[in-house]
Amino acid sequence: MSSKSTPESVKSTRPATSTSNTVSLAIDLTGKRALVTGASDGIGMGVARMLARAGCDVAGTGTVAEDHPRAMDFLSCVTRENRRVFYLQGDLSNPGVPTGLVDRAIAALGGLDIVISNAGRNAFKKVEETTETDWENCMNLNLAAHWRVAKAATPALREAKPGVVIIMTSNHAYSTIPGCFPYNIAKAGLLGMVQALAIEWGPAIRVVGLAPGFIDTGGNQQWFDSFPNPAAERARTETMHPAGRIGTVDEVGTFCAYLCSPAAGFITGNTLLMDGGRSALMQD
């Protein structure tokens, strides 16, 4: 399939009396250049794949070495779509790293139109168990790194007219469960960050938050595996979703591709919840 099209096209059909005028809408990001942080697995991998399928060249970051299987998987998922791809190793929790990674991405791609600030890590502890080091590590990666990445990319994104920043937060930003401190604090902070960046940088740059719920990733499988009966816990979790299942990384990636497209040009400054309806259902 051409990298200029995507199978996740959205069909818009007129009433039955006008079926001959059916219009097909496809997400087309041909020639756009995207940086995806945390691209070596999970949601980041899905986002990179779907952006490439829509036509993007992609630079992705991860903490593993370039010859690691996860990094190789990332490179393969983009090259299969016949797009340029670059892998950049670095730990975004280190305050000195984000600017360098962004600079390397811009140099590799020849510019930057899109930033998907996705990198993050669960930091689930009880409030009284959280140490100062736990707090600092969580806030550096799950909150401050998003600001540092977006800030470093701003000059290049202004040239894109408009540039787009998608900041990946979580359903934990809205409601959480015991023992998820300080992760939920960092994710809630991103809601305010999205608003602030959009206000200060618009209209040259659109800034949108995306808050996934349970997505079928290795990290979520580790959560299920922490229970005596992982299959039963997964089944129980699925019943808590009106959608009847948990989400996929490609669904998140496709939504990101849409949000980066001109079709979403009036969306900025807010965070969109993508949780299969779980937050709509009282869990008691």
CATH architecture: 3-Layer(aba) Sandwich
At CATH level 3, the topology is Rossmann fold
Q: What's the overall average pLDDT, rounded?
A: 91
Give the overall shape.
Answer: globular
Output the CATH class name.
Alpha Beta
**How many separate domains?**
1
Count, helices: 8
Order of helices and strands: EEEHEHEHEEHEEHEHHHE
Largest sheet: 7 strands, parallel
The level of helicity is 25-40%
Indicate the topology:
Elements: E1 10-12, E2 23-25, E3 33-36, H1 42-53, E4 57-62, H2 69-79, E5 85-89, H3 98-109, E6 114-117, E7 124-125, H4 132-160, E8 163-168, E9 181-182, H5 183-201, E10 205-212, H6 218-225, H7 230-239, H8 249-259, E11 271-274
Parallel strand pairs: 3-4, 3-6, 4-5, 6-8, 8-10, 10-11
Antiparallel strand pairs: 1-2, 7-9
Helix pairs in contact: 1-2, 1-8, 3-4, 4-5, 6-7
What would you say this structure looks like, in words?
- By secondary structure, the protein is α/β, with parallel strands linked by helices.
- It has one domain (26-214, 251-279): 3-Layer(aba) Sandwich (Rossmann fold).
- 39% of the residues lie in helices and 17% in strands.
- The chain has eight helices and eleven strands.
- The chain has helices at residues 42-53, 69-79, 98-109, 132-160, 183-201, 218-225, 230-239, 249-259; strands at residues 10-12, 23-25, 33-36, 57-62, 85-89, 114-117, 124-125, 163-168, 181-182, 205-212, 271-274.
- The strands form three sheets. The protein has a seven-stranded parallel beta sheet with strand order 5-4-3-6-8-10-11, sandwiched between helices. Strands 1-2 form a two-stranded antiparallel ribbon. A two-stranded antiparallel ribbon has the order 7-9.
- Strand 4, helix 2 and strand 5 (85-89) form a beta-alpha-beta unit.
- The radius of gyration is 19 Å and the shape is globular.
- 43% of the residues are buried.
- Residues 1-20 have low confidence and may be disordered.
